[in-house]
Amino acid sequence: MTGCRHHTGVLLFLVGFLLLAPLTAWTQQPKSGGTLQVAWEADVAGFDPRLSPGAQAGYVMGNLFNSLVSIDAELNYVPDLAESWEILQDGKVYVFHLRQGVKFHDGTDFDAEAVQWNYQRMMDPAEKALDAPSYSLVDSVEVVDTHTVKFILKYPSATLLPVMAAHAFGFLQMSPASYERWGKEEVRLHPVGTGPFKLAKWEQNRTIVLEKNPHYFKPGLPYLDRIELRIIKEGVTRVTALRTGEVDFANAVPFEHVERLDKDVKVQVLRGRDTLRVNSYFNQARAPFKDSRVRQALLGYGIDRPAIVKTALLGLAHPLWSFVPSGGKGHIDFAEQFPYDPNKAKALLKEAGYDEQHPLRFTLMTHSAEAALPTIATILKTQYAKLGVDLTVEVLDRPIFLRRWQRDRDWDQILGVSGAAFDSYQLSRVLDTRAGNNTLNHDDKQVDALIDRMKEAPTEAALLQAGYDFQRYVTERMLTCGIASLPFLQAARADVKGYVHLHGYKVQFETTWLDKP
């Protein structure tokens, strides 16, 4: 199998809003120059592709760095730093043919040795790279020649391309010389990639400024001279800045402002696939939640998802049962299997030993960074009360929520919003009991076996089927579940052109231009 493998993705689903047409404006000739002012929802902890956490950091880094492979708006795999690739030995060997003449921002060459170095750094245990587990199936990376690099896997697997293209923002390539110069601790402050933009200035909690890379390897791109990301944490302030023209573009638009923005003729609301999700699960280190009947009662039959979508999410989301959002690859709809049925939920709870004489009491923990979450929590409290369940709701500041969720693990039920999910395999890392990130605290080894089946699926079709089986097993036992699928909402003024909405998997401005005098 030679050349670039372009896979047919699911076509972009347009719901409610005009997506790409207003910004693409193919009949107009793009203009070069100008500064794009962006209302950005949060600051970052740095710009190290291996170690800097958080979606906002990943979105910025997608403009500073490139991966070997990327995705387009229809979720097809497309060339990036690799102009083509071959998949050999039934999926055990991947050979990437790299673009020639590409330079890092510091003037050093991007080549096969740089790719090998980025892999070796990621897999160095001392680095503790966030994306290392996704590449554990790689046995070695070999330099074939200056512009050819070979990934040899431990077994045939179709997971490498989606991991490189869309998981954790991709296999972003850093200049080895920059790491040698700045070291592990400081390189996050001095990002050197091959991307369309370079970091010009970062004032913490104020602004991140990117400037054009004049030597970008894609001819004619980028069009913009600069991008100024203004850190504006309050959603209403971001929206106000956009409507008044103080900024040109707003990231992470709150749901409650969509209707008003949609009526503004000077603003375009951008909504892609439903790739985000409101999700919930129980701490299975605690006795009541080890019982699948309790989980099925409370997360399956005991939740009126359509009511939550209508009331708390203003009808801008869709009910979700799976942990894979409806816009992701391989989503299964479990609506018929888990209809809202309070009587069935009460019967399951009684089988498990909980009734009016012995009520189930526990606490749900959520945060207020997403405005809808406290409302959803209150609705769940009311719906659970109909089952005879006494729920206490804790609404915390997000940093405290994250600490208690991931480190302390002193909670009963979690309610949160998770970032864009590409497929079942991407989400398996939080369910693997062997990976150290088992936030559910479960001990079901069948989950691990199903994860291994996905890892060892040699073709895309086999990976999809293994993902279906994994999704069914997890959802039918309600180990974790979704409450609603959400779109990644952005908005731009009418003179912003050429931006491609990538559904929250990436936020990239390399084709964006301003139609201003």
Main features:
517 residues; alpha+beta; Dipeptide-binding Protein, domain 3; four-stranded antiparallel beta sheet; 15 helices; 19 strands
Description of the structure:
The chain has 517 residues and is an alpha+beta fold. It has 2 domains: 21-266 and 494-514, 3-Layer(aba) Sandwich (D-Maltodextrin-Binding Protein, domain 2); 273-487, Dipeptide-binding Protein, Domain 3 (Dipeptide-binding Protein, domain 3, Roll). The protein is 27% helix and 22% strand. It is built from 15 helices and 19 strands. The protein has helices at 21-24, 55-64, 112-123, 160-165, 176-186, 235-243, 258-262, 292-301, 305-312, 342-351, 372-385, 398-408, 424-427, 445-455, 460-476, and strands at 35-40, 69-71, 77-79, 82-88, 93-98, 138-145, 148-153, 197-203, 207-212, 226-231, 249-250, 267-282, 318-319, 361-367, 390-396, 413-418, 481-493, 496-497, 513-514. Strands 1, 8, 9, 10, 11, 12, 13, 14, 15, 16 and 17 form an 11-stranded mixed beta sheet that branches. α8 (292-301) runs antiparallel to α10 (342-351) and α14 runs antiparallel to α15 (460-476). The longest helix is centred in the C-terminal third of the chain and has 17 residues, at 460-476. Residues 1-22 have low confidence and may be disordered.
CATH fourth-tier homologous superfamily of the largest domain: Periplasmic binding protein-like II
Total beta strand runs: 19
Please, how many helices? 15
Radius of gyration: 23 Å
Beta content comes to 15-25%
